[in-house]
Amino acid sequence: MASFVLQFVPQLVVLISLFHLSMAARNLEQLVQDQTSSTLRYHNGPLLYGKISVNLIWYGQFKPAQRSIVSDFISSLPAFSSSKPSVAGWWKTTEKYYRLAAKTRKLSSLPSLSLGKQILDESYSMGKSLSEAQIKQLAAKGGQSNAVNVVLTASDVTVDGFCMSRCGTHGYSRSSKSHKFAYIWVGNSETQCPGQCAWPFHQPIYGPQSPPLVAPNGDVGIDGMVINLASLLAGTATNPFGNGFYQGATDAPLEAASACPGVYGKGAYPGYAGDLLVDPATGASYNAHGTNGRKYLVPALFDPATSSCSTLV
Q1: What pairing do the DSSP bridges indicate for beta strands 129-130 and 168-174?
Q2: Domain map of the chain by residue range?
């Protein structure tokens, strides 16, 4: 089954949020400028709709506090927040894709995401080195109808391609009843490659060397996972089965978040995430409020109405 990869390019490490980047020879500044002048084409395929449970499959050892950072993020997607800007406000940008798709395809409804069940696999049932096929097996443990199953691997788990070419994946598989279900995999890069998959909360290995930002929830690995998960969720909603909204080749698509690499706030440029909010108590950088008083950093999304990267701040 198809899968779409959240890749990085070592020479351009600030492009953390790229899926199948195939233009590594171009510099970051050129890439950002080109993407904001482009349009993600709709390929007339189905999008996610209706009530969708986001099920979390925790593979390996995660502390309860780490799990709550991610689960609170998922709970923040549909939640109204009196604190602006919010995660829910960021997610609403995806609705613009649905309005565009509705012009050529009948859509039942917008997707309504909610936190589903959480499955703990703390015994490393498949070992500490996983293949893509094993990721799909783990994803199948979640609900296989009206669901997005998210596999989160601990910092001591290696996955094929992790840190060498990718930070995460989204794709789809089929259940025993031949239903399609969407899945996402994101790895905790804290000890394996934080300079590649947890930027801007860690000094990059290559590229412009600006000081790392303070992670809003005090955990470089998990806050980095949230950034990658947010990117992949946006891609899953708008291109769940490989024939939704994307630009470029089918095996190297730029999607809603990956079309805006390295951009988190206004004024972003290579090595600089943009003008962000700063928590005066902790010095942490963020651009979105979530539930339970959480603060998060979420990537810019490509706005199809303006053909530009839309940021919350």
Answers
A1: unpaired
A2: 3-9+17-194+218-259
